[in-house]
Amino acid sequence: MKSNAGCCRLRLAVLVIGASWLTGCATEGFEANGLAACPPVVEYSRELEAQAAEELALLPDGSALVEMMGDYAVMREQARVCSWSAP
Prior knowledge:
Strand order of the largest sheet: 1-2
Shape: elongated
Number of helices: 3
Distance between the termini: 54 Å
Largest sheet: 2 strands, antiparallel
């Protein structure tokens, strides 16, 4: 029986890269008085994102980094939404 772990990692890599691409047009969302601040979203080149996806796909099954990158994708999306909704 073949393992589908590589498939799962590839899907996660695509999710991470996709979320990163979606945040590429986000701007910083800071109010002048500094009370409501959205964290800035770092923009990555497509080349760097492709390299990250390739490296992520090479990680061993059960790698903590795979889980952490999924969390990072969620945080980037939250920061993107925050910056769009900031006054």
